[in-house]
Amino acid sequence: MKTMQANVVTPDGSVFEGQVEMVTVKTTEGSLGIMANHLPLVANLTIGAVRLKTESEVQLIAVSGGFIEVRPDVVSVLAESAELPSDIDVARARAAKERAERRLERAKQENIDFKRAELALKRAINRLNVATGGQ
């Protein structure tokens, strides 16, 4: 199968660079799968996993929003934050999920900052899914 260059970068630097057969991301308009020679496009990313498929494996990267730029031979993910499964501390991510759930419940009751609490919970769940391969 034909490959293309994929890059995942954050303001802190590169997280992934390599040849892949397919890139799958979650955009604000839905899931998007990209293979070599895809038409050029730019799309907003949501909290989710970037799935990078090579001939021998599938690599997941947790991202918290950003953009994807597609050219026929290169896919660039410009993420606000991105973490490889090996970089995610599962215990810390579980604790963040529990804090976010409590904050979300409080926000529902007090009718304040609901969106911020909801986003924190989505980020924590995404990190856990990527770290444990449950995406």
Give the SSE order as H and E letters: EEEEEEEEHH
Spans of at least 5 consecutive residues whose pLDDT stays below 50 are none
Tell me the span between the first and last alpha carbons.
24 Å
Structural class of the helices, strands and pairings? alpha+beta
Strand segment tally: 8
Mean pLDDT: 93
**Radius of gyration, Cα only, in angstroms?**
16 Å
Shape: elongated
So how many helices?
2
Helix content: 25-40%
For the largest beta-sheet, the strand count, sense and barrel status come to: 8 strands, mixed
Share of β-strand residues: over 45%
Task: Give a description of the structure.
- Helices cover 30% and strands 46% of the residues.
- The longest helix is centred in the C-terminal third of the chain and has 21 residues, at 90-110.
- It is elongated and about 50 Å long.
- Strand 5 and strand 6 form a beta hairpin.
- The model has no long low-confidence stretch (mean pLDDT 93).
- Strands 1, 2, 3, 4, 5, 6, 7 and 8 form an 8-stranded mixed β-sheet that branches.
- Helix 1 packs antiparallel against helix 2.
- The protein is of the alpha+beta class and 135 residues long.
- Residues 4-82 form the ATP synthase F1 complex delta/epsilon subunit N-terminal domain.
- It is a peripheral membrane protein.
- This is ATP synthase epsilon chain.
- It is found in: Cell membrane.
